[in-house]
Specification:
Helices cover 72% and strands 0% of the residues. It is an all-alpha fold.
Length: 363
């Protein structure tokens, strides 16, 4: 808990500097837009309705409720983000504890969770990512409680987490559907001594069908244009984010499903490893470069220890890592520069720490 307190104190300092002397690095652009929109709503100066990607602006409407009662304040918005980060960190620790990870490894996980440079910059300001992190961590904690402790009351918190993450970003609506399907699968195989391949082969088609139907419903609900297929919808979404200094050098045309499938490994490669050394032109780029190396090393540790993982823990290890990879793949397909990638890594940070130190603890 002391690690989280130190992390909270550091974030409060950043929040104070950002609010009264800033903006701090990363707190320009979207962070100020969310704050100013919330301010205009709270002071009854906002007369229109945000039409484009309206679900994405739910954060500003919720923030406006606090501004309405306490008065518009950038520091208040940042303080709420710090509280969300702290609650999310407590969920990471409780999840690791439920998975019987020892205290030393839990503390190491919290150090990574608390002091990764991008997390230090982006979690104490008025961005959605820290709340996405909270809801994803709440969902993972709920699933573990449901499966390991057989406590089905946590279905309520899981559903609330899925609704919360979907309200903050349309892409997370699809991930929420995947989480619910994965929870049903994990419950069906709990107590197995080995990874249940036979049950997987039986249940995978049923879960996949449910996910497919859910995604069809998702496509009908969201405001993105899927009429010409998923590949062109992804291409059009990416095409709206082409004004950053840190753009990826490779931007292929996506005209079909095969194009999209072929691009997935390239998108993941760029998402995890950019900027390359020859692209570094600032201290922020340099920090991201070393952070990417650290993140990649954690992934290597997970893969290595999954192979050596005790057979009774392998199903949960694979489950956690698969959810992390799926989440990061969704972000990778919609990310066109490494500045945005640094933000998009935030929601999966807790899941990465949980996955890594769970497999290390039980291998």
């Amino acid at each position: 808990m002391r690690i989280l307190i130190f992390g909270l104190f550091a974030r409060l300092v950043i929040a104070f500097i950002n609010s009264y002397f800033g903006p701090t690095l990363g707190a320009e652009g979207d962070a100020l837009i969310f704050h100013f929109l919330a301010t205009s709503i709270a002071t009854d100066q906002f007369t229109g309705i945000v039409n484009e990607n309206e679900v994405g602006w739910v954060y500003s409407y919720i923030l406006a409720i606090f501004y309405k009662f306490a008065g518009p304040s950038l520091f208040l918005g940042c303080l709420l983000s710090c509280i969300a980060w702290l609650l999310s960190g407590i969920l990471v620790d409780k999840t690791l504890s439920a998975l019987k990870v020892d205290l030393i490894l839990r503390n190491r996980a919290l150090i990574i969770y608390a002091f990764l440079p991008s997390a230090m910059l982006f979690t104490p300001i008025t961005l959605r990512e820290v709340y996405q992190l909270f809801f994803i961590n709440l969902a993972i904690f709920s699933i573990i409680k449901i499966a390991i402790n057989k406590n089905f009351l946590y279905w309520l918190s899981l559903i609330m987490a899925c609704i919360g993450m979907g309200a903050l970003h349309l892409g997370l609506s699809a991930y929420a559907i995947i989480l619910l399907g994965s929870a049903l699968y994990l419950i069906s195989v709990r107590g197995s001594k080995a990874f249940p391949y036979k049950k997987f082969l039986i249940l995978a088609p049923a879960v996949s069908a449910g996910l497919y139907l859910g995604l069809i419903e998702y496509m009908d609900l969201v405001k993105y244009d899927f009429t010409e297929g998923i590949a062109l919808a992804v291409a059009n979404y990416r095409g709206g984010h082409n004004e950053a200094r840190a753009m990826y050098s490779f931007q292929p045309e996506l005209n079909s499903i095969p194009d999209l499938i072929a691009y997935v490994p390239i998108a993941i490669f760029q998402y995890f490893l950019e900027p390359f050394p020859w692209n570094i032109s600032s201290l922020f780029d340099l920090a991201l470069f070393f952070e990417n190396i650290a993140r990649f090393l954690l992934i290597i540790i997970i893969v290595k220890n999954l192979y050596n993982l005790h057979i009774s823990h392998r199903a949960i290890g694979i489950f956690l890592f698969a959810l992390f990879i799926i989440l990061e793949t969704l972000w990778a397909l919609g990310t066109v520069n490494w500045g945005s990638a640094a933000r998009h890594h935030i929601p999966g940070l807790g899941l990465l720490a949980i996955s890594c130190f769970y497999v290390v603890s039980h291998s």
